[in-house]
């Protein structure tokens, strides 16, 4: 009896406490968690809260204001903020967006890490929507947002932000991130425009796509596996001919004056290694082990298609791209010509390879060893002898052309 009475005595206060909490409206759940997240700051009028922000650093302001901004989404909190006489919720949201822009430029990894933690328990789609809502006020983060994209760090900062946000996410979540950005920026329609129209007819759009892909999706400093994933997502939806056009737009040579893609660079005359380095690095990335969705045949076909964008390149430029792409890609490309019986084309490639090695001061022994390896690919002595005969004829024609050029002055 004694224990029973003690039990009843202890149960009465708990019942009163529950009834009291219901009368006060403090029902457990999302609203109560939201109210407690701000602590003592929830009692401050909005204009006082903004005065407090003036004494904090940019990072401290962002850490605090993003929590405060989060609470504006709850109706119960909105009623409290309506009592502020001089500052509206809209003004505070504008202040928050402006602060986000400033902080993302000063230290883009800070908001990325913060929003990564704040949205940890949300589904990927909701996380992306919330992050977009927070960053939507930064015009320089948009594909067509900045009036001077060549002189703006906005897209690069957005790339660092995105890199921090998605670090450690699995491949399925990163697919959703890409699809979200693809739809948000309407990239599918814009890419379709530039790859199906005449090269250079949409110069501004080509530049915008190049800067967005290189700054945001292919952010400098990303891991090779991440860069291979994003580049694969950009290229794979398109046919091979469009993949080559798009690869040239993103990594091809550009004008030092206005940043636009120079389409005639590979056609009009020999070019230097600087103009080809971006394309060579992209090809090596797709050929590496990080790009699991690409086979060797895919990459070789892409290189072959690239050499006729927008028209057939000078053979010297084609060979220089192969040399910059590395020994493995170079040999695989040459071996594919041998296997497919294209002896005349292979002979021209080998002759110009010797020429480029001489002009760019590569070791000529490398070209000799490469030709010896290619000769072993032929399945019969007749095919190998036919190739050597084509090689001899090509050298003879080149020497005659050089002699005529010298005699002509």
Automatic annotation (TrEMBL):
Classification lineage: Eukaryota, Metazoa, Chordata, Craniata, Vertebrata
Gene that produces this protein: Fbxo47
Region annotated Disordered, chain positions: 1-32
Comp. bias (Basic residues): 15-25
Annotated Pfam families: ARM_FBXO47
Protein's recorded name: FBX47 protein
Residue ranges with Polar residues bias: 1-14
Organism of provenance: Erythrocercus mccallii
Top-level taxon in the UniProt lineage: Eukaryota
Chain ranges of the FBXO47 ARM repeats region domain: 185-399
């Amino acid at each position: 009896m004694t224990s029973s009475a003690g039990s009843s005595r202890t149960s009465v206060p708990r019942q009163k406490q529950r009834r009291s909490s219901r009368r006060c409206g403090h029902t457990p759940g999302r609203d109560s968690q939201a109210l407690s997240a701000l602590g003592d700051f929830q009692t401050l009028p909005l204009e006082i809260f903004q005065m407090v922000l003036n004494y904090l650093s940019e990072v401290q302001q962002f850490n605090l204001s993003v929590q405060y901004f989060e609470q504006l989404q709850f109706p119960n909190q909105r009623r409290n903020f309506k009592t502020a006489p001089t500052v509206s919720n809209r003004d505070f949201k504008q202040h928050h967006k402006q602060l986000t822009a400033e902080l993302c430029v000063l230290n883009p990894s800070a908001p990325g890490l913060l929003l990564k933690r704040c949205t940890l328990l949300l589904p990927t789609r909701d996380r992306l929507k919330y992050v977009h809502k927070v960053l939507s006020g930064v015009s320089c983060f948009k594909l067509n947002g900045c009036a001077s994209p060549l002189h703006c760090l906005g897209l690069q900062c957005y790339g660092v932000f995105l890199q921090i946000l998605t670090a450690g996410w699995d491949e399925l979540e990163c697919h959703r991130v890409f699809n979200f950005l693809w739809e948000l920026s309407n990239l599918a329609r814009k890419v379709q425009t530039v790859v199906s129209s005449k090269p250079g007819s949409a110069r501004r759009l080509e530049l915008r796509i190049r800067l967005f892909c290189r700054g945001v999706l292919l952010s400098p400093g990303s891991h090779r596996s991440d860069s291979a994933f994003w580049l694969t997502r950009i290229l794979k939806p398109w046919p091979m001919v469009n993949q080559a056009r798009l690869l040239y737009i993103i990594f091809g040579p550009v004008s030092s004056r206005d940043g636009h893609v120079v389409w005639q660079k590979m056609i009009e005359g020999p070019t230097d290694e600087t103009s080809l380095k971006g394309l060579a690095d992209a090809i090596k990335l797709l050929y590496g082990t990080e790009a699991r969705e690409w086979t060797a045949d895919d990459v070789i076909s892409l290189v072959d298609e690239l050499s006729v964008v927008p028209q057939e390149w000078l053979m010297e430029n084609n060979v220089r791209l192969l040399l910059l792409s590395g020994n493995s890609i170079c040999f695989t490309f040459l071996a594919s010509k041998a296997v497919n019986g294209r002896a005349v084309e292979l002979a021209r490639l080998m002759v110009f390879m010797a020429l480029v090695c001489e002009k760019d001061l590569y070791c000529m022994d490398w070209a000799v060893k490469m030709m010896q390896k290619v000769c072993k690919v032929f399945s019969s002595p007749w095919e190998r002898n036919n190739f050597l005969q084509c090689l001899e004829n090509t050298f003879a024609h080149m020497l005659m052309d050089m002699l005529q050029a010298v005699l002509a002055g």
